[in-house]
Amino acid sequence: MAELNTDVRFVRGVGEARAKSLAKLGITDLKSLISYFPRAYEDRRESRCIAELQVGERACVTAMVASEPKLSRIRKGLELVKLRVVDESAALELTYFNQSYLKNTFHVGESYTFYGSTVVDKPIKFVGTGEKMDALDIFHPERMADRILGMGDIVSLVERAQEQYDEEEAKRLQKKIAKNQFDFNDFISQIQQIKKMGNLKELASMIPGVGKALKDVDIDDNAFKSIEAIIYSMTPDERSNPAILNGSRRQRIAKGSGTSIQEVNKLIKQFDETRKMMRMLTSAKSGKMKLPSMKPSFRR
Asked: What is the CA radius of gyration of the chain?
């Protein structure tokens, strides 16, 4: 065992060259080496808001992880771990150099205290919601945090629905429903509007409680493709007048769409049920819905 007065040159890993550098700091033996503290001290007890950070400032922030950490190997000897974090004020992208173990350390939805320096003063304005260029939404850190925690984001869901809302089309559709004329052309039009709002899993995550339940569930973005194939395999007359869809027509549609007769029957049944429900809701809204008569009963 080494004594405290052991010359620093004989400490493993130091050597003559490093000993000269240590001597300039007043470190000459083992005791002075283990009791040495740097002159510059940093107080890391206070956390700052992300929006308050300045370029080049070293600070602590307490934030929630918003994206899975991604490990990138740039070249030999250089690895990057990147992740996005959010607090109530803004979002921040963190980059760690040559610390690949951090990829499995941080978990989405959990909060941590991070320390580092800000190198780019570019706040996040938009967030991507899909693979296409038009799949961009205005970034709201508090909404993103709620969605990650499974609390939903009803405000963004309503805003997306309003973007696709056409008042004239809605009035036309309401009249067709009231007259029981809702057809497969209208049905496919509604599907197209839903698809424009974003992928299904993302839309579901905006509903409170649903996002957390579907965290580990894989929802296929092509869920509507078989429905679209069946409808597009119908003739214009069949789409406009579903009542004429007899057995032979359904068999032809199944072959044309690459589906089974059971899938075609299931879609037509769901369509009929949807049409009935929409008509009931429209009648109730207009006050024309008939309620069963009830005779009053009295007890003596």
From this structure: 32
Q: How many Cα neighbours within 13 Å face the side chain of 273?
A: 6
Is 214 in contact with 204 (CB distance < 8 Å)?
yes
The answer to whether residues 129 and 137 touch, using CB atoms and an 8 Å cutoff, is yes
> What's the CA gap between 139 and 133, in Å, rounded?
16
pLDDT tens, position by position, 27-57: 888 888 877 766 555 677 788 888 888 877 8
Closest by CA position to 245, among listed 189, 190, 184: 184
User: Which pair of structure tokens corresponds to residue 199?
Assistant: 């992928």
Question: Is residue 85 within 8 Å of residue 111, measured between CB atoms?
Answer: no
User: What token pair was written down for 6?
Assistant: 């052991």
3-state SS, 15-66, equals: HHHHHHHHHCCCCCEHHHHHCCCCCCCCCCCCEECHHHCCCCCEEEEEEEEC
pLDDT, tens digit (0-9, with 9 covering 90-100), for 132-180: 666 677 666 666 655 555 554 555 555 565 665 566 766 777 777 777 7
How far is the C-alpha of 168 from the C-alpha of 172, rounded, in Å? 6
DSSP state of 1: -
So what's the pLDDT on residue 230?
92
Task: Choose the weakest-confidence range: 14-18, 175-179, 247-251.
Answer: 175-179
